[in-house]
Amino acid sequence: MSTIEKIQEEVLVEEVVAINNEIVLFNDDVNTFDHVIDTLIRVCQHTSEQAEQCAILVHYKGKCTVKTGPFDELKPQCTQLLEAGLSAEII
Q1: How far apart are CA 27 and CA 68, in angstroms?
Q2: Res 6: pLDDT
Q3: Which residue of 3, 7, 38, 41 has the fewest CB atoms within a 10 Å radius of its CB?
Q4: The pLDDT of residue 74 is above 90
Q5: What's the pLDDT at 70?
């Protein structure tokens, strides 16, 4: 393996390790589907289809990962979800 290939491999491994956090959204008996969908579109930049699918999964499965990425990027998004009255946490 050449030095360049080894460096590229190390960079790829670091990128995979760096994106290991996720925001999990939990079901509740308070928020409407429309509110959840609108909030995911606004906060997580979901398409309307993505947001609707996540809302359905949360409703029927009890939770759904709605965003993955580095902790520093997820923290403000999770805070906004919480401020909107949704139940979410970073894991």
Answers
A1: 19
A2: 60
A3: 3
A4: yes
A5: 95
